[in-house]
Amino acid sequence: MKDASDQSARDVERGRKSYAERAWADAYEALSRADRATALEADDLERLARAAGYTARDDDFLRLMERLHQARLDQGDGVGAAHAAFWLGFRLIGVGEIGRASGWLARAQRLVESEGPDCVLRGYLLLPVIYRRIFSGELDGTEALIAQVVDIAERCGDRDLVSFARAVHGRLLVRQGRIEEGLSLLDEAMVAVTSDELSPLIAGLIYCGTISVCQQVYALNRAREWTSALASWCEAQPQLVTFTGNCLVHRAEIMQLGGSWSEAIREARNAAERLTRSVDLRIAADAFYQVAEIHRLRGEFDEAEEGYRRASQLGAEPHPGLALLRLAQERADVAANAIRRVLGMTSDRLQRVRLLPASIEILLAVGEIEEAKAACKELEEIATNGTDVLAAMAAHARGAVALADGDASAAIEPLRRAFQVWQDIGAPYIAARIRVLVGEAYRALGDEDGMLLELDAAREVFERLGAAPDVARLTAREGRAGTRPHGLTPRELEVLRLVASGKTNKLIAKELCLSEKTVDRHVSNIFMKVNVASRAGATAYAYEHGLI
């Protein structure tokens, strides 16, 4: 018996040490062994419950928190029991068990009723009320409730609650259209997170909430910065499971934006695989949607269809991506009906921002210019006092509508403005899409050289990214315009002439200030377009067709 007792004591010490080092799985295993031998005391039981939560053992977390609640009651610690009840209710809200959640939160509330005004749990218990009001759109009076939480937290010296309340306040301000004020409060909360001042649970919640808001309002540089910080935070805790799926999805979105599509789809797939084994199905749905988006952009339509289907099965809205897929499949009427339906059911302004650019593209494709103008006007109104990227989205839409309406002159300035913003933040695909529109505007104004420069620059980006549908659209557009029957871009003509002069790819790369890999790709494209298999064949083609 003494040996078993000694072993249990060693497991408890090992579990405490692992917990302090944030080795969550090791802490869970050691404390679980000790608990099987002899029921843990309340403090160690709380460590075991938290370790279960950090390793995504949600059923164990809930079961252990119920035990902790009773253990605190048995000690006569009503506030401790209320804390356990609160976190039980808070987690149950997250997994959608609203009835049980309400019961545990009510129990927590009853336990603190006899406590004085400086009981910090009074502040925590206001958080579900605030969240419910924000997400139901009942914003009047909510700011005053948040002020109450901050006041309680500051009086009690609870840094977790102070920072969490500031983050929630930031989200509220963003929902109210006070975007810069809201982002500033979120930045302040994130300073506490990145300075490692907060508990892992609160830090993870603030990380994921802040990045989500940044992406909703297209504060993309902030989203990149905080996603990188989140990735480092997760990597410093290799046994952490909770929050890592969110991190992978956020990283995939940032990678897609930056043009790293292969890496993005790998991260999104990892997130989808990890999260479908847990209760975080909403984030899993986001991961499948992200996978589908990259397949759509690459022209892998069957795979995209499957990704949107999986996202929908897990409760996510598969639009606007699915509607854009239908447009790419030349089912424009289906796409238009779908995007109208979704917009008609969506009242939240930030969710509408996500839908409006796609709706404008689809409406223009079916010739509904007046309807597209109305959508463009709404986007411009939302973008007022918003981020630079929101303004660029509105300018992009304005230029596209003007071009479709036959006013090429009016299209150029907003398109160039939008292009510059996307170019500056490192979003090559969107920037290239805008260059295509600029090229179309130049062609409408009779500037053939300007058109070719824009379309060739866009083509180079599309080919590098593997955006097959966009390459195909450009090729079809060139065919309709009757230009360059050989299909070679100006850069490819330049490379062909140097190939014909006998220069190697290495020398061509040096002369044109390109990478050798880029030159290799240009040479392969040339061979394919002029239907030859060798440098000698390409040289002969160039002489026969007067290209040199």
What is the CATH top level name of the domain at 386-483? Mainly Alpha
- Strand and helix order: HHHHHHHHHHHHHHHHHHHHHHHHHHHHH
CATH superfamily of the domain at 386-483: Tetratricopeptide repeat domain
Low-confidence stretches: none
Shape: elongated
Query: How big is the Rg?
Result: 28 Å
Number of strands: 0
Relative helix content: over 70%
CA distance, first residue to last residue: 93 Å
Would you tell me the overall average pLDDT?
A: 91
Features:
548 residues; Serine Threonine Protein Phosphatase 5, Tetratricopeptide repeat; Arc Repressor Mutant, subunit A; 79% helix
Describe this structure in words.
The protein is mostly helical and about 550 residues long. Among the domains are: about 100 residues, Alpha Horseshoe (Serine Threonine Protein Phosphatase 5, Tetratricopeptide repeat); about 60 residues, Arc Repressor Mutant, subunit A, CATH 1.10.10.10. The protein is built from 29 helices and no strands. Helix 9 packs parallel to helix 11, helix 15 packs antiparallel against helix 16 and helix 19 packs antiparallel against helix 20. The model has no long low-confidence stretch (mean pLDDT about 90).
